[in-house]
Amino acid sequence: MTASSHRTAPDHTHPDDVPVQTALAALADPVRLVLVRELAGSADWSRSCGSFDVPVGKAALSHHFSVLRGAGLVEQRDEGPKRVNRLRRAEFDARFPGLLDLVLRDD
Q: Does residue 31 surpass a pLDDT of 70?
């Protein structure tokens, strides 16, 4: 067996369980903001963790995704050797109406 076959599924926090401070802190980091913006422009489950062009290593990228999961922004699942992502837009918008719209604006 390969190491990837022993991976455990990541824990996910539902946006309903997220304090606004946690959501704001997750979105305040420039790398996480890039991840959220790129996910917002991609189809659900179409982006693997390694497909993002961010200036951090694997360990830091894993940490950033962990923070986004903990803030209820991202859901991840394993597909073969890759971990794919989706932005939890509908659920997050229901909890924090308008917040993602503000964050995703280009101005």
A: yes
